[in-house]
């Protein structure tokens, strides 16, 4: 994998945010030498008994062994008095590793269960990195005593660093809301940079809250909010074999949030923040792009058009070149497969109306659109002029940096 | 549009082939200054009375005015004693140009009809180049007298040059077969380099034959062979608004080829040659890649997998880096949406079996696969181990050259 030394120009200027401590969750990370040298590469999160754990995973037909294991375990509580654990390593995806991959998950999850005295079915693992190489699971299991001894409620930023691969910055997001006069906290971390595409949860995302909510209610909330956040981003249209989003609610706040709209909104905000951060760390990205599509025949068609624009190599290279090339947007609408009437389409770059009624707008001045394209955060807006279907997705540009990371180096 | 001065490394070493003269067809080209300076940019082909004309066109929902006009005219014979004409300009696509675009087609097609004394419904136009700019049709119509005077049966190579945009070499292909002891000739030209994707005829292709065949029979043949040639190539997954394939059969050989398998095969060969030449001129391409998928549940699923591999930015950049990164092939299979069982998949690079039974092959030596990747013509073969579905598609790699052509220059 390429060695990336430069932080993405789209990284938040303030660095990693100050995340609230979530009562009932402790973190530790360690340099186990799974693949990388001189950096941490394994993180352990211990979650208190009585917590609810919900999640969504990649829909890839070739998903990795840890993903299959997590999917089998989700919703299971074998001992109501026992806690849960998340164990994540970077540097090796343990994907397409056959029976040995399944065995490796058993080794690491079993060792965590023994170390923390919890059922193995309460241990969720994930692996991210190179596909097809055997996971050196003994390097991970031999680090568990140290990880367990180091567990600390304040070490979430270190955990975010340990799960990075081609990421150029650690990603965190938080919200604190008041429910019935009491604070409820949400803190999340994510990793992801390449192999990011729609119809999945993105690479690895872990969110923690001290809210009180049943597992089925939390799962329903996570699934529906995922559709409005991680499933609306794309870096390169390539879907990972390992994508995992897990949310743990410890209940330590004592505040029941089931059915509470404010909590749903705060959770959505944290998920969308993390999704945007993944795009901002897209391999080689120099522009953060929002694509809004309105007036499609339905929401599905609107998303089809938005994703066709966001994934088009010609649109993405035009953005990299700061070229308000609306002809390529027209091309992407046309190829999307969605219902479209050429003469009803309107296109804006930012606030600049570039095309309407099947041709360039009579008031269009290219210098105005070109000025918008020079910004770091761009908006491409398309109105199909048909009905009320709408969708918004987020992506980045396609630059020499992407080619460098993925072609100029051997994985 | 970028100025490309270097010929693709994948161009045929022998240059433009020697194409047979097709009796009943004459060509002319001219430098009309539509956009480019110092080169030809309009070609006219005159086709004898009694010929059959068949074609397929882009399925884009935002297709260009000339495409809509051709589709309306196809199969029409308003005067059995009158010939046909193809008029093509490069430098301007006359796409997304509203009512003015429709009017421009009327101006040019009408002028050709008058110049050659044929019905306007017998004139097929096409335009390729920048989207969204008005076509300076008077530059084309004022060149028609010169074009008409210059018509010559031997000038097909000049015609192939006049229709180029970002192409780095002119593309031609031919076959001569014997039917009942008499020769039947086929000669074709194509242009296309970027905005090349599945589910369409590629950019612009014109094929001529002296075979005798009715229009409906020729149309059926062209449609079915298109599915096995142009619809199986992809450069960048972006579908053009102007793709046009037209085939004219003059009947001058006096040989009726209706239902003749040898003619169908020869026509297929010419179409596939031209399709491969378009991939070999893919923007920035340095590798020509065949992707074979076998043992899918059906042919549709096989093509889905093959196209997911051929369009994956991560696979294409790995090929550019000469990296036998089979993990990315696994990823592409997984995201394709096709039915797949991880533990039944086998993957080869060339003759080298890299993965089987859900993991790396025990006999795999990376140096062998790496040696294959250094070649100019590559094979990625996937056996899904499920049923008899099969598909083969062709693509090229994704390099800095693609970014340079599409991002570093303003269109």
UniProtKB/TrEMBL annotation, chains A, B:
PANTHER family: ARGININE BIOSYNTHESIS BIFUNCTIONAL PROTEIN ARGJ, ARGININE BIOSYNTHESIS BIFUNCTIONAL PROTEIN ARGJ, MITOCHONDRIAL. InterPro entries: Arg_biosynth_ArgJ, ArgJ-like_dom_sf, ArgJ_beta_C. Keywords: Acyltransferase, Amino-acid biosynthesis, Arginine biosynthesis, Autocatalytic cleavage, Cytoplasm, Multifunctional enzyme, Transferase. This is Arginine biosynthesis bifunctional protein ArgJ. It is found in: Cytoplasm. The record marks 128-129 as: Involved in the stabilization of negative charge on the oxyanion by the formation of the oxyanion hole. The keyword Mitochondrion does not apply. One of its GO terms (molecular function) is L-glutamate N-acetyltransferase activity. The record marks 201-202 as: Cleavage. Catalyzes two activities which are involved in the cyclic version of arginine biosynthesis: the synthesis of N-acetylglutamate from glutamate and acetyl-CoA as the acetyl donor, and of ornithine by transacetylation between N(2)-acetylornithine and glutamate. Heterotetramer of two alpha and two beta chains. NCBIfam families: ArgJ, PRK05388.1. Gene3D superfamilies: ArgJ beta chain, C-terminal domain (3.10.20.340), L-amino peptidase D-ALA esterase/amidase (3.60.70.12). It catalyses: L-glutamate + acetyl-CoA = N-acetyl-L-glutamate + CoA + H(+); N(2)-acetyl-L-ornithine + L-glutamate = N-acetyl-L-glutamate + L-ornithine. Its EC number is 2.3.1.35, 2.3.1.1. The active site is at 202 (nucleophile). It comes from the Bacteria.
């Amino acid at each position: 994998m390429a060695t990336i030394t430069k932080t993405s120009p789209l990284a938040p200027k303030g660095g990693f945010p100050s995340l609230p401590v979530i009562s009932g969750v402790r973190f530790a990370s360690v340099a186990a030498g799974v693949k990388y040298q001189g950096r941490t590469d394994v993180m352990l999160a211990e979650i208190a008994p009585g917590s609810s754990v919900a999640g969504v995973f990649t829909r890839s037909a070739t998903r990795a062994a840890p993903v299959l294991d997590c999917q089998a375990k989700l919703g299971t509580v074998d001992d109501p008095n026992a806690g849960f654990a998340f164990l994540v390593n970077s540097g090796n995806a343990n994907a397409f590793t056959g029976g040995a991959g399944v065995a490796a998950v058993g080794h690491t999850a079993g060792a965590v269960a023994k170390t923390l005295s919890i059922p193995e079915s309460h241990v969720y693992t994930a692996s991210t990195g190179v596909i097809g190489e055997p996971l050196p699971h003994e390097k991970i299991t031999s680090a568990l005593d140290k990880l367990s001894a180091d567990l600390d409620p304040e070490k979430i930023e270190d955990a975010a660093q340990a799960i990075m691969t081609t990421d150029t910055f650690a990603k965190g997001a938080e919200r604190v809301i008041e429910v019935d006069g009491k604070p409820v906290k949400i803190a999340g971390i994510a990793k992801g940079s390449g192999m990011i595409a729609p119809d999945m949860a993105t690479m690895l995302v872990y969110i923690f809250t001290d809210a009180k909510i049943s597992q089925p209610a939390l799962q329903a909330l996570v699934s529906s909010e995922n559709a409005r956040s991680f499933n609306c981003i794309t870096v390169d249209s390539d879907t990972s074999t390992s994508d995992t989003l897990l949310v743990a609610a410890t209940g330590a706040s004592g505040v029941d949030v089931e059915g509470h709209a404010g909590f749903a909104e705060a959770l959505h905000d944290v998920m969308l923040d993390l999704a945007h951060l993944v795009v901002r760390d897209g391999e080689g990205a120099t522009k953060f792009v929002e694509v809004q599509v309105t007036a499609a025949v339905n929401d599905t068609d609107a998303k089809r058009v938005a994703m066709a624009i966001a994934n088009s190599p010609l649109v993405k290279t035009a953005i990299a070149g700061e070229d308000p090339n609306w002809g390529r947007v027209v091309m992407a609408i046309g190829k999307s497969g969605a219902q479209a009437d050429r003469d009803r389409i309107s296109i804006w770059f930012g606030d600049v109306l570039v095309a309407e009624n099947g041709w360039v707008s009579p008031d269009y001045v290219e210098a105005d659109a070109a000025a918008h394209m020079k910004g770091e955060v761009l908006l491409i807006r398309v109105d199909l002029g048909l009905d009320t279907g709408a969708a918004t997705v987020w992506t980045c540009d396609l630059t020499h940096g992407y080619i460098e990371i993925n072609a100029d180096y051997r994985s």
